[in-house]
Inverse folding.
């Protein structure tokens, strides 16, 4: 498994929302319990976004004056996580823990 899977699982289980991308990156590192290279994170987010598995992390709520950062799966992302859990026989939390300690 890889960073893409970890991010998708975090989106599914935790759905973090932060004030900006830097805070989002820090939150992902805190959840993973390890450093995550910024370029690798950006590339993984782009792959998930291009694959239709997450919504755009930069989010402007109606009536807001400032964008926020979020990590939220699309319906296709939910289905992908459910398939991953079925194949592995593990919960989302167990998979996050396994991926956080490569």
């Amino acid at each position: 498994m890889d960073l893409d899977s970890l991010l998708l699982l975090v989106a599914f289980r935790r759905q973090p929302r932060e004030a900006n991308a830097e805070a989002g990156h820090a939150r992902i590192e805190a959840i993973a319990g390890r450093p995550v290279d910024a370029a690798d994170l950006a590339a993984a987010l782009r792959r998930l976004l291009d694959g239709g598995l997450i919504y755009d992390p930069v989010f402007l709520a109606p009536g807001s004056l400032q964008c926020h950062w979020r990590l939220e799966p699309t319906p296709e992302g939910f289905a992908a996580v459910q398939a991953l859990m079925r194949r592995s026989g593990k919960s989302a939390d167990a998979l996050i823990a396994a991926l956080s300690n490569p």
